[in-house]
Amino acid sequence: MQTSARKKIKGTTASLNRFGPGAQALFHVLLGLFALLCIIPFVFVIIISFTSEESIRQIGYSFHPLSWSTQAYTYTFQLGDQLWRSYANSFLITIIGTVLSVLMCFLYAYPLFRKDYGYRNFFNFLSFFTMIFGGGLVPTFVICKSVLGLSDNYAALIVPMLFSPFNIIIMRTFFQTSVPTELIEAATIDGSGEYGTLFRIVFPIVTPGIATVALLVALGYWNEWFLSLLYINKNMNIIPLQYLLMRMQRNADFLAKNSGMIGADASRAATQLPSQTLKMALVVFIVVPIACAYPFFQRYVVSGLTIGSVKG
Amino acid sequence: MKRLVSLVLSLALVLSLCAFAQADDLPTITIMFHGSNVSDDSVVLEKVNEYIADKVGAKLEVIWGTWGDFDDKATNALLSGDSDVDMIFTCSWSADEFNKYAKDGYFYELDELVDAYGAELKAAIPEALMTAATVVGPDGEKHIYAVNGFKDTATQIAWDVNVTLLNELGYTLDDVKNLGFFGWGEIFAKAKEVKGDAFYPFLVEPMVAERAVTNTIIVTGDSGNVNLLSYYMNPDDLTQPTEKYGNVMLNKFATEEYKAFAETMRAYYVAGYIDPALAVAETSNDTRTNAQKEANYLIGTQSYAYGYEYSAEVTSRGIEVAYLPCTDPYVDTTVSQGAMIAISSASEHPEESFKFLNLLNSDPTLMTLLNYGVEGVQYNLTEDGLVDFYGEDNELLPGRSAYQPWTNGMGNVTILPDTKSEGAGFRKAFQEFYASGKAIPVLGFIFDSSEVETEMGALANVAAQYALALDCGAVDPETELPKFLSALDAAGMQKYLDAANEQVKAFLGE
After folding, report:
1. I need a labelling partner for A210 at 20 to 30 A (CA). Which of A288, B90, B156, B312 fits?
2. What integer pLDDT is reported at residue A70 of this predicted model?
């Protein structure tokens, strides 16, 4: 009797949650279209990177180019040292930056969440304030370069982005919603020290939050090029791939905008710029690793959601 | 006690480090260039430093700014008072605009240094270039604030004609010359007929075309992206003002000459002689350079520099190209401040820096070394003593492809040796050609827009909306030009013009 009742209830909820076939189809189409919207630009980039220069000159970008060519990739591989070094730099900066930044975020957000921490409000304010009021470009540059010595070294590409108030707020909120205060009290009663509580009790619970923040930070580091522009002047061995690409792009933009002013020099320089296909080939190089990182982070994010639903 | 000991020890460490630093012989001076394409400068700098050690008494380091990142790097370095940058490229069109930055005190005043160490420099470059680098400083007096590069010191706009195609169509260069811009319709029609509908014979950079047709100049200090002011040159005698307008700054878009230009462009556009992609700022440049490379045009525009028709960019098109100049070469403020090197006022070694600039602009060995690189690495010498950047396989030498500075941004290019692609005697002819440049009446005039900055911003926004489309013929001037003009008036055009003309009068001493 009991079982049948449960079945009945189950049946009702299930039927309540079920969509009609029409709606199902509609949602499939909508989501399918959305997925296409996301994937088409990238497919287009890949196609362009395999298009021949002549085809682009004659008919512009097209899904059906007149002729194909792997010239962009051959050229990219001939870039040799600079390309692979920048590629390695991108990885290095992203990995070290992400680990350090997440660690800082985690350690800063934890006390902010503990109600028994006296200076909570002060430190909350301290980080929040910088989110609204920035120092501006030039003062930041002076502090980073003259005071902290961030110039022509890897630290210059990592340190300025280590601390993110936004991530700290995300992290703190995550602590507040998923870590019950009772749990920490229980741990203390059982004789756990502060570090033990933090790393052995709290850390495993908040991995989804950490994964989320890590994903944001990793994306930020991977796509960062402005820091290289500001702080790397002489040591071009340490620039990341993204900057290599941005430099080409900005050169092209500059020459387009100023050709009337600089005259023949600009026309001359414009013809020496890397081709469209080369740019697209570099985009492929840039996008692939970070696209591969998504499923990895997603695993943690999804598992976090499951934990939440089970508890609820 | 322990603390005291550790303090003393760390102090000792710091002091010993200082002593060590002092033992390091020569000071380092750093220069920031524009427009470079350099990935490996090690061999060159080693030689340069060997060469300048005694002559300058310093070690050189170079920041190879590129077209895209120079503006950000330069303004940051100057505004933050970065003492790591001693010398920096500046000119009338970069973000560290020479006149403004000199006036605001970011550049080191060179008067005394020029007198003390600049004898060679003064002998090597024309007096006029020194004058162009002498501008108002923070104290309200005129001083020398930069070492002006001796390059193409005059300018002119030319029509770039695809002679091969022109002859195919049964026309000659004289026809192009005689018919003139307003009469090219029939040639374009013929081209369209022969080459088919997808062919666009008139390949213009719209704003350059406008100046080419109306014989106007860029007024230094005018709004950068879209110029608002026009000064009309007298094509019959460039040193005199036109009878019609005199020495007056005009609203570029309000003259009958502009209207005639825009109407003709409209007619050409409607007839399909101009590629619509040229009217879109984002695609304009790519479209133009691609069509040029493919020789897919009949007539185009070009800010002309001497010898351009012999450069690889033009010869690689595989057609015969001729340039029809719209005026004789002329010298205006913009071109006379086209490329200079200033010393940052934050520099700790202004003296060494100036000695270096003096040497760079007067010593062929140093100039060649820094520009063309090291023989055997960046280039080879031919039997006639010409510089050849290409190897036996006709490919750029690997050393050169990793080291391509922007020659015109470095200083005195007239002391460079001839290259194989330019041919023997090129530099001499180059120098003679530019010596013939005529100074227009308002040479040296710099519009100071500081009092009308608000108006300038508003006007530039209005102009950005209309100018390109009108210059290209993409919209009808009958309806759009009046709208544009009234929008300009509403944004304060009259005040802007009045400010400019008041300054012109003061400049000419009227």
Report:
1. A288
2. 84
A57 and B73: CB-CB below 8 Å? no
What pLDDT sits at residue A55? 80
Q: Which domains does chain B have, with CATH numbers?
A: 17-150+336-432 (3.40.190.10), 156-204+274-324 (no CATH), 205-266+445-510 (no CATH)
**Would you state the pLDDT for residue A98?**
95
ipTM of the complex: 0.76
Q: Who's near B188: CB < 8 A, 6+ residues apart?
A: B201, B202, B268, B271, B273, B298
- A164: CB partners within 8 A, 6+ apart: A101, A105, A217, A220
Are B218 and A236 inside 8 Å of each other by CB?
Answer: no
- Kindly list the domain boundaries of chain A, sorted by start residue: 20-69, 80-311
Best interface-test mutation with B: which of A152, A232, A267 has the largest number of B CBs within 10 A?
A267
**Within 13 Å of residue B470, how many CA atoms lie on the same side as its CB?**
25
| pLDDT attached to residue A303 | 57
Q: Do A252 and B79 touch (CB under 8 A)?
A: no
Per-residue pLDDT tens for B423-441? 888 888 888 888 788 889 9
Tell me which long-range contacts A79-82 makes (C-beta under 8 A, separation of at least 24): A82/A236, A82/A244, A82/B39
**A50 shares contact with chain B (CB less than 8 Å):** no
* B208 in A contact zone (CB under 8 Å): yes
* Residue B111 pLDDT: 94
Query: How far is residue A230's CA from residue A221's CA, in Å, rounded to a whole number?
Result: 15
Verify whether the Cβ–Cβ distance A260 to B304 is below 8 Å.
Answer: no
Res B95 pLDDT > 60: yes
Rg (CA), chain B: 26
Topology of domain A80-311, per CATH? MetI-like fold (1.10.3720)
**Cβ of B294 and A58 within 8 Å?**
yes
Of A58, A263, A266, Cβ closest to residue B155? A263
Give the span between the Cα atoms of A104 and A159, in whole angstroms: 11
Helix (H, G, I), strand (E, B) or coil at A173: helix
* Cα B494 to the center of its chain, rounded Å: 29
Quick: pLDDT tens for B239-293.
899 999 999 999 999 999 999 999 999 999 999 999 988 888 777 877 888 888 8
Cα–Cα nearest to B223, from B35, B442, B492: B492
Q: Give yes or no for A121 touching B (CB within 8 A).
A: no
Q: Which residue has the tokens 């021949």?
A: A52
- Token pair 């009045």 in the structure block, residue: B498
Q: Please give the helix or strand (H or E) that residue B67 lies within, else none.
A: none
- Are the beta carbons of A271 and B293 separated by less than 8 Å? yes
The reply to whether the predicted model has a pTM over 0.95 is: no
Ordered DSSP codes for B350-394: HHHHHHHHHHHHH-HHHHHHHHH--BTTTBEE-TTS-EE-B-TTS
What's the gap in Å between the CA of B438 and the closest CA on chain A? 18
Task: Measure the CA–CA gap between A124 and B490, rounded to whole angstroms.
Answer: 49
B395 touches chain A (CB under 8 A): no
